[in-house]
Specification:
The chain is an alpha+beta fold and 594 residues long. Helices cover 15% and strands 33% of the residues. α4 runs antiparallel to α5, α4 packs parallel to α6 and α5 packs across α6.
Length: 594
């Protein structure tokens, strides 16, 4: 089934929308083949949310999204709160199933269209009934729409090969591309931007950007953000950073960027037991209102008082029903499949969080199974959207399994694989891992023609004489394919430096509590962005296995909120969906994206 042609017509106004459809993605099964209707009836319950879309048309399709010629197998109109429940007869076999949302009352000639992948028909039918309360859900949102646009671009417009495994790979490989496209959709949806070139719908906007951009791949860096800025035109480049932050730190959008969802009823991603929750909580300057209001006034709502990022550690218990508790009552939550809902009270505030759980390679945790948690939420006091990264580390007699920070280098096959996929970073010496950080979620790009404007190229190596410390030094440059297709090799203006270190070196150390910690911290650092934007001085944090670094201003400083530096590629994060539920089991240390 081929992707529709890209036709650019009238501009449109998008109301923020997503349908939280109960779903989960099976860890196995292949696509392909035409549907044969008549399988057992399956009930789907969810809501068109992110400001409820009263009267939204929800359509379930097989084979492809609705706008790509998928076969409709059921449709219903959402209620006044955007809620719906629909029973559908799924096709037999392993056929990809999609949920689609169309908002009513669009302006003449414009269409609000969003789509989401639910999983394979046989696995969905086996579950019988899916609701947002008992299984992980995947919202019909800008993120899911962007992910499907990228999948279509990288698979010749054909959805026959879409499976839970290929979807999860798309999320991992093209995470920053998906984030940029989702931000562009949201920019129009929040009435912050109008596309420079008229397009027919939100799905066409996503497809246009995905088709025209250079996506992330081996030895090349993405131009997706630049393409999005050019497609939107005007001053939209100045709002895209805040919108990317709003997605990364949101409790619904953020988890959609990582891993897939599990369809196996009554099976949770984390083994019951006692764990040390070792986390970084990082408030952003963006208010939760940006993702909850129906429309925006033309500016991004922000928070005036923001707390510095913090390392939060507590001992928790995960029981067989997925309940998460701590003896001091600071942490409580519920785990469904690999979707974790948490409430954390750190003594100064209460955070409502939602995150995905993935299995860390056991080589990083002394042979024991630890789990990485990535997502977002909100400080209920000041309404600041908050980034959340954590590891759940198994404990014995109250002592957590020790991290193996040097496993990236001591495991030769892992190093070789990672060294071949360098995200455009150039000039790292032997023994160093090339890592590209994406600053686009924090700093405006001013319509630069390539995404290198918002990049920071570094070389990471173990600190001499230590297995719990890293030293990071600037790379000599980056090699990119520009928006116009030409290539260049050069250095860029963004820097990360540390007081007392020469040559731009930054020394990261594992914390001392607990000993040793799964959180690396570098103090007295300064992140200096390009183009004269205000530097941020404070501390930087990295949770073992996560996909981003946080740079947070010092307490008492003029606090613009924590900067989120996305890591391009999976150099430091090689998570499997679940060591228990993935058909392939845990990913090997040498497995990469491509």
């Amino acid at each position: 089934m081929q992707h529709r042609s890209l036709k650019l017509r009238k501009t449109f106004v998008l109301l923020p929308a997503a349908a939280a459809v109960a779903l989960a993605l099976a860890g196995c099964g292949g696509g392909g083949g035409g549907p044969s209707l008549g399988a057992a009836s399956t009930s789907l319950s969810g809501a068109a949310i992110d400001a409820p879309i009263a009267g939204a048309t929800i359509t379930i399709t097989s084979g492809a999204p609705l706008v790509d010629g998928g076969t409709s197998i059921g449709s219903i109109t959402a209620n006044s709160q955007g809620g719906f429940t629909i029973s559908v007869n799924l096709p037999t076999g392993s056929v990809p199933i999609f949920a689609n949302a169309v908002a009513p009352n669009s302006s003449a000639g414009t269409t609000l269209e969003l789509s989401s992948y639910l999983g394979q028909s046989d696995a969905l039918a086996a579950a019988g009934a899916l609701t947002t309360s008992n299984l992980p859900d995947l919202d019909i949102s800008p993120v899911s729409t962007a992910a499907l646009a990228v999948f279509a671009r990288t698979n010749g417009g054909n959805f026959n090969n879409l499976t839970p495994a290929s979807y999860a790979t798309t999320l991992a490989t093209y995470r920053n591309d998906i984030l940029a496209i989702a931000a562009a959709i949201k920019a129009v949806g929040d009435n912050l931007c109008t596309p420079a070139t008229p397009v027919t719908s939100t799905t066409d906007l996503a497809a246009t950007i995905a088709q025209n951009a250079t996506l992330s791949a081996t030895n090349t860096a993405s131009t997706t953000l630049a393409t999005a800025a050019a497609t939107l035109g005007g001053n939209c480049a100045t709002v895209l950073p805040a919108l990317q932050t709003a997605i990364l730190a949101d409790d619904r959008f953020g988890p959609e960027l990582d891993l897939g969802d599990l369809i196996e009823a009554n099976v949770q991603a984390v083994l019951p037991g006692t764990y040390s929750l070792q986390s970084v909580i990082a408030e952003t300057p963006v208010s939760q209102a940006i993702n909850t209001q129906t429309t925006q006034s033309g500016s991004v709502p922000t928070v005036s008082t923001i707390n510095p990022a913090e390392v939060f550690v507590d001992n928790v218990t995960v029981d067989a029903s997925g309940n998460v508790t701590s003896t001091d009552n600071a942490v409580s939550g519920t785990l469904y499949g690999n979707l974790l809902r948490l409430q954390i009270n750190d003594g100064t505030g209460t955070y409502q969080l939602r995150a995905k759980v993935g299995s860390l390679p056991t080589a990083l945790s002394s042979g024991q199974q630890a789990y990485n948690v990535q997502g977002g939420g909100v400080n209920t006091g000041n309404e600041a959207l908050t980034m959340f990264s954590a590891d759940l580390v198994p404990t014995s007699a109250g002592t957590p399994a020790q991290p193996q920070w040097d496993a990236y280098w001591s495991n030769g096959t892992m190093y070789q694989q990672m060294g071949s996929e360098d995200s455009g970073v150039r000039g790292c010496l032997s023994g160093s891992l090339p890592v590209r950080f994406d600053l686009s979620a924090m700093f405006a790009r001013n319509n630069m023609s390539d995404d290198s404007f918002s990049a920071l190229a570094e070389c990471v190596a173990p600190t001499v004489g230590s297995n719990t410390s890293w030293t990071m030094s600037p790379a000599s440059g980056m090699s990119f394919e520009e928006y116009n297709g030409s290539a260049l090799t050069t250095g860029y203006g963004a820097t990360l430096t540390q007081t007392g270190q020469s040559g731009g070196a930054v020394v990261w150390n594992a914390g001392s509590s607990p000993t040793p910690s799964y959180v690396m911290q570098a103090d007295n650092v300064t992140l200096t962005p390009p183009s004269g934007a205000t530097p941020i001085s404070g501390s930087a944090y990295y949770v073992l296995g996560s996909r981003s670094v946080v740079v947070s201003p010092l307490a008492g400083a003029s606090n613009p909120g924590s900067a989120i530096l996305n890591i391009q590629g999976r150099f430091l994060s090689q998570l499997s969906e679940s060591s228990r539920n993935s058909s392939d089991g845990e990913q090997s240390m040498s497995q990469g994206d491509h």
